[in-house]
Amino acid sequence: MTITPARAVAPLKAGRRRAARSRSLQPWYRNGSLMAGIVIVGGLVLVAVFAPLLTPYSPVTQNLEQSLQGPSASHWLGTDQFGRDVLTRVIWSTRVDLRIGFLAVLIPFVAGSILGGLAGYFGGWLDTVVMRLVDIFFAFPFYVMVIALVFVLGAGETSIYLAIATVSWVSYAKIVRGEVLVAKQQDYVTAARLGGFSHLKVLARHIGPNVLSQAIIYAMSDIVQDIMAVVTLGYLGLGVAPPTAEWGAMISNGQQFITTQWQQATIPGLAVVVTSLGLSWLGDGLSDLLSPDRRK
Amino acid sequence: MLHRMRFIPGRTLQAIPVAFGVTILVFLMSHLLPGNPAVAILGNHATPAAVAALSQHLGLDQPLWKQYWLFLVHLVHGDLGTSLTYQQSVVSLVWAAVPVTLSLVLYALVLSLVISVPLAGWAATRPGGVRDLGVRAYTLLGQGMPQFWVGIMLILLLAVRLPVFPVSGYGQTALDHLYYLFLPALTLAISMCPTIIRSLRASTIQVLGSEYVGTARSKGIAGAALFRVHVLRNAAIPTVSIVGVNLGYLVGGSLVIEHVFAIPGLGSLMINAIFSRDFPTIQGVSLFVALFVVVVGILTDVVYTLLDPRVDLSVAVAAR
Amino acid sequence: MKNKVRVSIAAAFAAIPLALAGCGAGVGGGGSGTGASSSSKPVYGGNLVIDRSNDAVSMNKTTTFDNSSIYVMEQIMEPLFTVSNDGKTVKPWLATGYTVSANKLTYTIKLRGGVKFSNGQPMTAADVKFSIDQDTATGSTGWGYINSAIKQVVAVNPATVQIDLKYPWAPIIADLSLFSNGIIPNNYAGESETAFYNHPIGTGPFEWDVWKKGQYIKLVKNPHYWQPGKPYLNSVEFDVVPDANTRQLQLEGDQADVDTFPDWSTFSTLKSTPGITATAFPSTEIDYLAFNEHVAPFNDAHVRQAISDAIDRKALVNAVLFGNGKPANSLFMPGLPYYDATGGETYNLAAAKEALAESSKPHGFTTTLLIASGNANEATVAQIVQSELKPLGITVNIQQQDPTTAHASLEADKYAMAYSIWTMDIPDPDEWTSFAVDPSGGAQSAFTFYDNPTVISLNKQAEQTIDTTKRAALYTQLQQLTSQDAFAAYLYYPPYAYATSDNVHGFFVTPLGNFHLEDVYKTS
């Protein structure tokens, strides 16, 4: 397994750290990233929830006489080849992509953290087995694994969750294991064990909360990855089935008409970019809050 | 230096169980398919005679571990099954597609470095400055853009609106390949650069502030020479590790990009295999790619050691 | 997706007028094809690049059914007769003519002199006998059906072939024009069958060069070609370019000369683009949804009728074909003899709901529609159908498989509804009717397993009726009955869309879909 830099490079004298330190002294509402993230993600969630109120058209009803119209007053982004309003579909896609992105994080988070935590805490053969498993799963590039799994399980939402879970858990396992390795050598843990707490209690009550913050921070960027995966699968035709509006499927659809109605392929992509930005900022902000001295 | 290389055998030995694990996973794939693996593998072309023949070949009547052993034996003999679509051995198809994907990945890597190194250096020399903010804005943006969408936008801008590059395809001569692969490689590079720039920038800042560089400066070394000889070599070390780790992502990302640009590499092979229910090809490509990533992992550690004289991985390896 | 496995059953004298029209000397040249001026002088040289979305599957002319393979092999292996440019008759090609015995059981065919294979070997009757026999031998697994009426082929002398029939069979000359009866060297020129078809040898204008699977097939000029002065081109390249945008841009950028099936949405733009000629060639194509009667509830005629009535074909033609083509209202296509649309399918949602209410599933049901992957038109039609069946309570899940796999799924009875395409290969309805409505026609009624004894008997009668008025009446009845039974939901009749650059001359596509590249030349 490759060595991460932190372990192998001898510590060099730190450069300017003033910026980081001052960030941790700020109240959360002054943290630029965090606020930007909250605004954007919050906005997206609101859009998703209130989609029916925001859009006068249906995202799935076809209107074949009005197909492939350019942007106009009644259709700000024009219509697709089925006569459906593009803007409406972009908005309704928020529901699908956000939901799947958030839900898909849960299983890997839970499974990976537990496995990694146990591996780090108990060490020994359990650690070796789990880390070997991590290496094995890590060797399969994400899309190779996802495509193979979709082949086996068929396309659709369930396959997406399973595929993402199978591939993503390794990162959580690695992170949590690393944190636990450090944490279990701390005084408070020794004290707890001496005080008679069982391993389980120590893990759950004492170590857990402290190490999970790193996993949570990682989860934020993982949500971005998962949304990216859902959108890519939709683009390949292996994701959410039509006629449900989904950004990736919209981009795939719009690609045919790129010479005449380029906005059909472009705008959904921009929506993904904005979503990712928001989530990344949120993640950065959380990182500042939860572990201010760790931020690069 | 040779002395430090003594970790290689140990490192390789470590990789062996991983390689085996990879083969086990791939082997198990055919058993995840509903029903008789032979029927699932042959799909619509399954005549009773063919199913019987394949079942025999795979040893389906024997215990699972024996089937795995057969799988390994076939693998060693270069037999990964026959593609249902092309009626050719999977190995021959993979072999033909590998140079294409490798060219794309290497091209992307080169472009990434060409873009990242100057940008990271730029940003690192004046952290917090305008250039730095610009570069960091790019890294943030770069990570948020779906790769295939970037590809489509590049096609729109540089192939449709301004017909500078071809829209898709691979071309026929070596020079053609360079031309046709530029946009896809650039697409991959744009997604890869943020990670490299972040790491390189951070470690460059660290190195610039270090005593080591301070000493060099006091000796009168400055500017480009300082950067190249003293800064870059040290700053590159953690980045090499990151690149190695991300090479898997790069290969995976190239899968989708090959589809966008109609490049006949492993990615197109695999994605087409889904629609033709060509299971042997899916299995073959998965196996090949995973083993490739394992090998790259070893190579990364070797390069890492070559670069950083302080690293003695033999110690670290033993500690695992 | 093309269904091309056929069977020809005893048809009799009805096709004789067609066959007689085929008699005669002279080589048919290409019709007035594309090009800035048909009177411009042919230019020698050049490489013609033809873009298409799919790669070929195999060059084995006796077992392959997909067009991407067929259009390539037709440039290499030629038949004794070929279809005329208007798609209504056959004309001599490697044969110069024939005579029929009085009892109609023996055809004596004269072979053209001076014809050589690309390896320099002269073509003789032994080669012809071998070629036809090899096709017949494939029987039900390949195109052998088309020769089912042949008792034996005899090489009378090197320039004459005699075909003895089991029973009078008027379409025999038309059958010989099918690509599966293309002429190859005797005994595969000493190779095994598999090895031979890896680089097939024929008498055609081009010979085999190389096939980079998934990328392109290249053919080069056959120096021994029998038509004097042809071909003009040095080589032809069939490139695989799945994305329609890319094909268009390659055409506009001079990287390709012919764009096969450009997207209909850009067709009118292409027509007015300077330097490019976009042509919608009249076709004998019909696109339809096949219903698998082995899968409930498609065995219920009310269900099939309901689905058929719920599809707005005019809307499909507008939304998918952008106005090019016509709604399909019969099993036959306009341009096929005896086409009659009375009583054909129409769009009527109320009638659809009524029909469903009387059926076994009055509240609707869930089912799957199989389409070919990578085909934008099929995907669009599928989604439109999905949406149009929703008001009936029918939920359609769309399943994509690549064309070859999808075809195999149909053969293996593993589908519920499937998007299907048919184009004629000989200028006689019998080829299509036997394939589509007769379960013993070798394709299980176009894999629908449709079995209506009245319709089957009508078909058999029509095959043996000489009198054209009587035959027309029989085929009219057949078309009406099949529409009533709604064994398939006919969708539309699309033309063949091709876009070529203006410096390509002589490119012409017959209503059967094939083209003669020996007539094509490029100016700069």
Largest sheet, strands/sense/barrel of chain A: none
Low-confidence blocks of residues of chain A: 1-23
Helicity level of chain A = over 70%
Oligomerization state: heterotrimer
Structural class label of chain C? alpha+beta
Helix content of chain C: 25-40%
Helix tally of chain A? 12
Write the layout of secondary structure elements.
The complex is a heterotrimer of chains A (296), B (320) and C (524).
Chain A: H1 5-8, H2 18-25, H3 32-49, H4 51-54, H5 86-122, H6 124-139, H7 142-153, H8 157-183, H9 187-194, H10 199-236, H11 247-255, H12 263-290
Helix pairs in contact in A: 3-5, 3-12, 5-6, 5-8, 5-10, 6-8, 7-8, 8-10, 9-10, 10-11, 10-12, 11-12
Chain B: H1 7-32, H2 37-42, H3 48-58, H4 64-76, H5 90-125, H6 130-144, H7 147-161, H8 174-180, H9 182-208, H10 211-218, H11 223-261, H12 266-275, H13 279-307, H14 313-319
Chain C: H1 16-22, E1 47-52, H2 67-73, E2 81-83, E3 90-92, E4 95-100, E5 106-111, H3 125-137, E6 150-157, E7 160-165, H4 172-176, H5 193-198, E8 206-212, E9 216-221, E10 235-240, H6 244-252, E11 258-260, H7 267-271, E12 276-281, E13 285-291, H8 301-309, H9 313-320, E14 326-327, H10 349-357, E15 366-372, H11 376-389, E16 395-401, H12 403-411, E17 417-423, H13 430-437, H14 444-447, H15 453-463, H16 468-485, E18 488-493, E19 496-501, E20 504-505, E21 521-522
Helix pairs in contact in C: 8-10, 13-15, 15-16
Briefly say what this structure is:
Chain B has 320 residues and is an all-alpha fold.
How does this model look, in words?
The complex is a heterotrimer of chains A (296), B (320) and C (524). Helix content of chain A is 71%, strand content 0%. Chain A has twelve helices and no strands. Chain B is mainly alpha-helical and 320 residues long. In chain B, α5 (90-125) packs across α9 (182-208) and α7 (147-161) packs across α9. Mean pLDDT of chain B is 81; it is low at 315-320. With 524 residues, chain C is of the alpha+beta class. Chains in contact: A-B, A-C, B-C. The interface between A and B is large, with 60 and 75 residues.
